[in-house]
Model the fold of this input.
Amino acid sequence: MGFADAVVAMIVALTGISYYIGVFLTSTASSQRIRNVGKEMLEDSGTSIALLAFIAGIFAVVDSVFRLVYGTGAEGAYESAFTWIDNELTLVLTGMLRIKMIPILLESLEATGYGFGVFGILARFIERQMTLWSVLFQTYGASLSLIRAWVIFMRYGWIVLLLTGALIYTFPASIGRTAGGWIMSISITFYALLPMMGVFVEIMTAVTFSEIFQTFQMSAENVYTYILANKATENPENIAAYVVSGLTSGIGDFGTIALLRFIFIGLYFAIIGGVMFTLSRALGATGRRVRLPGLPGG
Amino acid sequence: MFEITGTTVFILGYVLAAINYYVGLMLGSFPLPKRIRSIGWGMVEDSGTYAVLLAICATPPIVLQIFSAIGFGNVDALYEQVLYPWLGVKDGLALKTGVLSLMLNGFVQLALIIFTLMLASIIILAALRGILLAIQFAAIVVPDAVFSAVRSVSKVLGGIMGVYISYRTIQYTPFLALLPMSWFSLYAVYFLAEFIRIYWASIMGLGALIFGIPFRIGRKLGASLIAISLVFYVGLPLMPYFVEPASRITSAAESVKKLQMELQRATDALGVWAGPTTWPTTQDPQLNINREWGNPADEPGVSSTQVNMSLGKYVYGWDTANSMFSIIMGGGPQNVSDVSPTLDPPEYVKRVAVPEGLAEFTFYTILLPNIYLWTILITIAAGLAKVLAGRGYF
Done:
């Protein structure tokens, strides 16, 4: 028996236990208070059955959302998410290389003996100037790696979380409503919204990965063309200065785009948090007991 | 010396029940204001409830013994036979099997990859510097431009390798942080389990004792202690049954094995670079990599030509290049020629990322045991505590 089957079986068993204890208390207890407890347990068992139907419906709803947005099911949506994150990691690697490129070139020129000590100082100076960008790229890269792992987990792990939440939710006497509601809302929200993170960020920053790369490629090609055209006539110092300015000029823009994307990823997670909170309230996870005929919070 | 055991605590509990009863009786029957008399009768009522609770608290060990006798299994044995082997801990020490070992192994492999990359960088740079020193030592006349070029190349290589190592490190950083966290939290479960297994009856007795403090002062705390001790004692050893089916341990183990193989191949290659007096001679059938070290010339039937060919092939040939390349490129291609210069960047990024099995396993082992312990068991314990405490809980 798989994990999902076992959990669904346990939910059904707990629902049955709640129902029959409720019936027993309602029909046999002499105290009004205990009869009320029995009535609440009867209501809870009905809610649990509604919850099972809700879980079954969630699969269809989420899949429909993915098909609407991506034209494919969940697998295709998640593949797009991985491609987007991998593209962003490439952006990080390129950014890190670009930041380090000029100091490396200057250091290597220094090593040939043509730097006269100045290039070495200049390399260290540029490196310090770039420290903040470097920290940004590293933080962005580490965050993306964490998000990538979380996406890997959520792709198949969401169902485990959802069912675990549902199991806790159906504990008799409503004792697991808060914890179960939160776990279910975390699972549903992240699973449905994580793959759309790339779409959101690219729309908000109005720049796609390929556009960023084209810009970088163009500046590199400009430098290369300049060297080919002027290597016979220009002084080596002028060519070196052009190379340095050509390759460093775009770093600010490149870093700004990365920073913007980082900020919008944070914003997107805030949106996910908001949706999650709303859903958890709808599921009755805020501790406020919603009376029937409310939805599963009842 | 006075020792708190289950029995002494229960004796004290009954003494408290008697105190409650007689003090209540005294207050209720004396000619005092009505309010004080009602408090007294309330205490008499509480003492009755308390005596029932003490009787209930005395039953679980007996019930568990009866369950064990009729073949339902012993809860204490579940700790030894299910929980501890699953964790991979015996007598407080982590074993080479179990979830903890797998986590530690994954962490070590990732850390070693970073370390190997650093070592590879150092060896490559040292080799270039070594060439310069050797030329100077041998007094070979070489133009200054060659020296400059080699120095320059070593600077460029060093810089690029530095960036690359930083990149690989930031890719692994979340796991280098999460895996130890998860490891420590699961290792702590062992100590919690040992504590609960040994002292659960005492904790329950203590809860019962606190429960009976006059005027319902300790009802909430007492009921919570009773519920937590009972629920955790029975629930803790069942944790593997909840976590195991979903935790992808098999795919994590495969991921770790793959990382191990890559590392082994790379360290073999590094070994040859660092010390060319040793070289592999046989194939390990399990890992399909060269592992045995020794001088092939010492083996009977091996000619010096064969030795030289083997050495030349390994030190200067494709094997070394492939092995070095494999660890640098994240274990993707097996031949240098497999990698075209127009390698798609995302494909490359995917290749050097942490394997999926290990990534999933990391989150499963962080989330599921904690959900089980601090949500499922605590929720059940809270429900039980409410039932035990009755009106006094609210």
In short: Chain A has ten helices and no strands.
